[in-house]
Amino acid sequence: MTPVSSHSPHGRSPLRTVQVLGGGNAASGAHVRSLAAGLVARGVRVTVCAPAEADHTYGFTGVGADHVHVPRSSDPGAVAALRAACTNADLVHAHGLHASFRTVLALSGRHTPLVVTWHDRARADGPRAHFLRVLERRVVKAATVVLGTTSALVDRARRTGARDARLAAVPLPGTRTPPGPEDPDRLRPKVRAELGAMGRPLLIAVGSLERHRGYSTLLDAAHAWSRLDPVPLVVVAGEGPLRGELQRRIEDEELPVRLIGRRDDVPDLLAAADLALLPSRWEARSPFAQEALHARVPLVATDAGGIPELVGDAAELVPYGNARALADAVVRLLDDPDRRELLKERGARQAATWPTEDETVAQVLSVYDELTRPRPLI
Known about the structure:
Elements: E1 16-21, H1 26-41, E2 45-50, H2 52-58, E3 66-69, H3 78-85, E4 91-95, H4 97-106, E5 114-118, H5 127-142, E6 145-148, H6 151-160, E7 165-167, H7 184-195, E8 202-206, H8 215-225, E9 233-237, H9 243-252, E10 257-261, H10 266-272, E11 275-278, H11 287-294, E12 299-302, H12 307-311, E13 316-318, H13 323-334, H14 337-351, H15 357-372
């Protein structure tokens, strides 16, 4: 791939960009940090507009970007702060629906090119769902280019009115070097002992404890695993509003499931796991699915959203909300070591097809160059 220069052919150097992030989920926050690091390394001036806590979490300033605190969307000063931060930008790149909508408002009356990345689909029911569709239409019609992390998101942007929608290259941050712990053979028994999974299969799920993650279905499926000998332990890493409800079910139904809260050692958990589980109703480019395949852990996931496109034939896919199908897929894999080995090999091959951080930065920079190149006079 031919490297793209941050130096504009008409002498404007360096390119000045603003990256806009709202509250940000883990995937979009990590992506913006990775993108900022790569752009700065190529001579681009990068300002990240995000709440202060996002900089504390992802360390944008630590990779050479400037950070401007822009409050969350509920703060009336958010648009004014964003408009001031974008004053001298050659190009603005917003991530996520709410951050993109605020950026559209902030750039009103200006001709600054706007790139929007959709990392996931905004979800809601009832009147709020209609409100989100209105925001989507406003954003895609104002954006110069919309980048979607899955083909489904690109198609959605086009149906909603985008004039230019493209598939985004989005890596799993850290793919420049092999993921996972340095000594998994040493670490595996230590983590399994900590979790209480010695002498029994360990199943790992990671994600916020919210309705769309499908954890109610996971608990339904766990009834079937309770009859196995030895009984597998399901460990769920994450926090969210459903924690109390899920914990009550686990205790009342005596399920072999542990909620361990938010963790920053997911690679270590995967190194200890026999299977990874992703029962979500919708995922775009799931970081957990990518981490599982990178770590050569067999994955059982729902055939929803962008998951099939992401994993190909390297995972067992089941319908969302079907506890029997999920339970049966897990039981079959636990009983079939050859199938588990096959999925490990397929996972490694599939992971090798995903873009690296360097390739992602090169793609984004080529879009920036295209949008900031001067138009020939007619």
